Amino acid sequence: METERHKRRLSSQAMAFVLAGGRGSRLKELTDRRAKPAVYFGGKTRIVDFALSNALNSGIRKMAIATQYKAHSLIRHIQRGWAFFRAERNEYLDILPASQRIDEVNWYKGTADAVRQNIDIIDSYDVEYLIVLAGDHIYKMDYEIMLQHHVESGADVTVGCLTVPLAEATAFGVMDVNDDGLITSFLEKPQNPPHMPGDPAHALASMGIYVFDWKFLRELLLEDADDSNSSHDFGHDLIPYIVKNGKAVAHKFSDSCIRSGLEKEAYWRDVGTIDAYWQANIDLTDFVPKLDLYDQTWPIWTYAEIVPPAKFIHDEEGRRGAAISSLIAGDTIISGSVVKNSLISTGGRLHSYSSVTYSVLLPHVQVNRNARLKNCVIDSGVDIPAGLIVGEDPEEDAKWFRVTDNGITLVTRDMLARRQAELG
């Protein structure tokens, strides 16, 4: 009972600050109209819903989301799907767009500066701890456990970390840790990342999750703001400074990862490329997926649209509405079309004699008669012309669409419009 009271006490004194202002340029045209955290995932959720749901499920009721680039769809999603916080219950969710609050020159200059420019807002909530989160990763994690680790260790900063293949470590902050869990070095996105002791194939990487005592971080942010040589970034500046001059502790993701009985391994994905985004969505169609979205003990909250159920029609040879090993969202009509190992988001319309295989369709995609899609990501609102075949001839696809090195084809409305204009 004492442990439970302690946990509630910590969560009530913590605030989650979600960094959701990045460009997401590695997702190419998927982020032409939306920020990366606002990209759809899993048929009905957005990427940002995972960080917010983790905070909510962990017992945190004070949150802020810093936005910057192409933020409209993200802000609209938060307003529609996360408007259930009630101030009278001491619950708050603030949307904090870059708005030149400090002066009339600077927008958010870095991740740390995004927090620094909102010091007065954080102060107003009178919190003891600040949890800084990236808004663009897919995972389930109990931040309470990390909070407890932070307090018990007496750290100035606690950094969430996980093991990644050495070849992928250039995209992360990479750290060395001693036997006591103290971080002895921290390099942000190094070209030649150091491997883990005794394991030349892997590196210990930062998840972009940090826990601070707010008073400590507040002073550090003000000092950093006055440093003309700083890029005002957590990974590049503040964390290395604390490693050198203070106490930085590593928190293993495996210690606080949420797993149902079906999930055998700790699941975390950076879906920052078209290939990674496609794979993470397709993984959900596995017989036993690595990420269990059906775990009601740790729900992923989102904007729940009021839509009718999915519908399957026609039952004749060659024209049978069917879906195999696939996720089909509401308001989808599979009309004499066959879907295999795919994910169809809300509002899909798939017409007779068409097929969709190993593909991810975002909301309100229409696939007209006799079209065939394979190994594709189809952006929202795309109308696939009748008879179009995508994913079977990479050279032909590359004339009109984006084809990745791994053979995944991205199709957007603008690409189809250009194709139509050239073909007449």
From TrEMBL:
Keyword ATP-binding belongs to the record: yes
Pathway: Glycan biosynthesis; glycogen biosynthesis
Catalyzed reaction equations: alpha-D-glucose 1-phosphate + ATP + H(+) = ADP-alpha-D-glucose + diphosphate
Source taxon at top rank: Bacteria
Residues the record lists as binding alpha-D-glucose 1-phosphate: Y108, G173, E188, K189, S206
Keyword annotations of the record: ATP-binding, Carbohydrate metabolism, Glycogen biosynthesis, Glycogen metabolism, Nucleotide-binding, Nucleotidyltransferase, Transferase
Enzyme class: transferase
NCBIfam families reported for this sequence: glgC (TIGR02091), PRK00725.1 (NF001947), PRK00844.1 (NF002023)
Protein name per UniProt: Glucose-1-phosphate adenylyltransferase
Organism of origin: Sinisalibacter aestuarii
Lineage: Bacteria, Pseudomonadati, Pseudomonadota, Alphaproteobacteria, Rhodobacterales
